[in-house]
Every structure is written in structure tokens, then in C-alpha cells.
Amino acid sequence: MKYVLIFLLLPFITKAQQTQVNTDSLMNHIWVLASDSLHGRLPGTEGFDKALGYSMAFFEKHGIEPAGRDFWPQQVPMDVNRIDSAYFLIETGRDMMQLVPGVDFSVRGYSGSGNVDSDVVFCGYGTEADYEGVDVKGKIVLVFKSNPSFNNDLPPFTIRRHADIAYTHGAKAIVFVSQPNQSNPQKPIGSVMHGEGPMHEDLPQLQISVEKADYLLSNSGYRLSELQSLIDSTHQPHSIDVNKKASVMVQAVYSANGFTQNIVGVLHGNDPKLKNEYILIGAHLDHVGTIGNSVLYPGANDNASGSAAVLELARVFSLQKGKLKRSIIFVLFGSEEKGLVGAGYLAGHLPVDKASIVAVFNMDCIGYGDSLMVGNGKSCPDLWSLADSTSSELGNRISIHTWAGGGADLTPLFEQGIPGLYFVTTNSYEHLHLPTDKPETINQALYSDMVKLVVAITKRLVIDMQ
To answer: Can you list the domains of the chain with their CATH numbers?
Structure first.
């Protein structure tokens, strides 16, 4: 009799297990999305298209329907750029030292193409004032990757704006470097966040490490930290010829008429009235690509972790479809890395009335760090209280730190008046936009706890109706 009872209960046990968050399933998605074959998931490339195809096939397998003909996928106009190859050499006095891509230098995602062998000129913060009386025609300029803190009258810093200033003064290449006097100077990262300004297709744009920038300055009589201190203390430019040559090369392929894509699917609820209300669960699918065949930016935490979580939530709730009262919209955003492009477009081209969206849950960088954090709580205190009480019941309290105004891809939707929360982990950015952001670095226990939290909060809103 005991064995018969176990046999009869087995299907129910299996069903219950299937509706729980599966860490192996999450990690399998991350291994796929962060793999070499997806080439860093840069929009406008085959790698991003593969990520789209993989995700759409998974949604379809689990009964997630397109939110409409124009949402599977949703095409978003955007200029695109691909870095095919690059090198950076510095004169040593005897020969040229070759820098290591991904470690000593990176290529900006919207760099132009070119091959420049020339003198290098340090031009401070790269503002117009830094170029006064300085000859940079035909040369490579080295500038800090920020505005000076002592001048609040300047327009916001963007890569394109500062590249345009250098270009206007005749420079043939621009190299950015972090401020060495910061507590933790940024390493050379892969990034497509270039901001406002014209695109110069013939201007190579790179970022160098502080250590190699100091080597570049070794004949100038200054260290980089000394130059920053001098400029910051006097509030005056101090541009100098560094007395070294460098050689930089970038091959890029640019299109002003490209596009990125969102995937927007829906799992319909069953209540005659409440099925017309929605919880939107999203994460950005894109990352920052490669430097040709030499450097891969895998983007495991940023944001294969969030994308995998969206896929896992789709699986979990598809198995409970008959219990759903409200409907769930699942979104994978394109081109968050360029400046919330996909989310911004979706906010203006929603598949449903924005008033029918009860909440947006956005997940970004949730697989690395040391604790759970939920943003936008000051703007949506009721939702944050729900997250806090739910996390307490699960035994994984969220950080008391939160903020207002959205965050990441939640921001443009929140600005449309749609309430929401932004799920992230604390101290999550050690590998941000670096080649080391690999699946092996994922904190699987923390990651699983975060996804379980989002599942539990969502369940309260679509099944339990809290």
C-alpha cells in the first residue's frame, strides 16, 4: 500500500517541483547567452540575432504568445557599429610595445575606423579650454573620461561630444582614461554608451588603463595623477606633449540606419475582468559585443542573468497558467547598453493601455554580489513593502537601501506613470563590461534567491491577488 501511495503522489510531487525555480535551468540559459557563439549579444550583429531566436523559441515552447504582430520582435530604429579589429602600440625608445586588448585598452563601441601613427598630446578633460594654444592636428589626444568636477557650467559629458571636440581641433584619434585620483579608477571597459554628439566614422576612439597611460607619459615629467591634481587644484588646463609616439588602429563597420529589437510576449490570465490587467516582467538581452576575435565581453551577469530570469519566470508561470487571474507580459529589451533604447521605445509603443499595467518588475545584474536589493521603493512604497514582506517570508531579507525615479530599463516606463521595481544585487559590478563577466562568476545561491523572490511577488499579484 505504501508503494502504491508513493506512486500515486509522484506526478504531483513532480508538478510541484517543476513550478519551482530551477537553478540549473537558469544557469543553462546563462551559459548559452554568454557563450562565444553569441559574440557578446551586440544589437545589429548575428550574435544578438541568435540570442533573440533562442529566447523566442523558448517562449513559444512554453506557450508565451506574441503581444502583437509588431512585437515578435519589436523593431527599434538605431544606428549600429561593430568593432572588427584593433591594436594599440606605444613607443618604447627601441621599438613599439603592444598593449593587450581587453586588459590594457578597449575600443569604444561607436569608435570610427582608422590607422594612426603619431605623437600623443595630453589634453586634460578634453574641453574646449584644454585645446587652447595646443596643436593636435594629425595627432592622438589623451583625455580624462569625465568632466572636471570644478566646472558645473559644461554640458553633460558624453564620449561623442568629447570626441567631436578633438576631431574639430584636428586630432586623428582620441584615447580616454579614467581619473587616477578616484578611489577605484575604471578599467578599460567595453561600452556603447556614447551619448549625444555626431558620429565620426574616421576617428578611432579607445580607452587605456591608468597604468599604461602612465607609461605613455613616462617621458613627459609627469604622472597622470600629478596632472589631474594640478588641473583640479588650479582649475586651469595643463595640456602637454607627452614626448612619445603611439600607433592605434581600429576597423569598425557602422550603419546609421540599423535597428535593435525587443521581444514582447504575453501569458494570458483567466479572470474575465482581471485578465485585462498586466504585470510586466523584463530584462535587457543585449550586451556590448567584442573587439573582433581578440576580446569577448560575455555579459553573464550583465545581463544574461536578468534575461535568463525572465525565461525562467515564463516557464514557471506557464505551468500555472490555469491559476492566473491577471496576465503577464514578458519583455526582453534591446540596447539598454546604448541608453535604454529598447525600453524607451516600448514605453511609447506599448501593446496595451499603460493604465492596465499594474506593475513593472525589471531585473538587471542579479547574479553577482552579496545581497538582494530592490530599487524605486521610494517612488512605489506599496510595491516595495510587498517585496520586503515577501523576502522576509522567504528568509532572504532585501537591503533597506532603495531610491526613487526608476532605474535602468524601468526608468522610461516609470516616467510614463507605470509603477514598478528594479531588482539588482549589491556590489554587483566587479566584472561590469569586462571580459571576466563569465558564467563561472555567478553567485548561484544569491541568484536563485533573487529569482525566487520575483516569482513569489509576481505570484501574489497574478494568482493570490494581493
So the answer is: 21-78+258-462 (3.40.630.10), 81-254 (3.50.30.30)
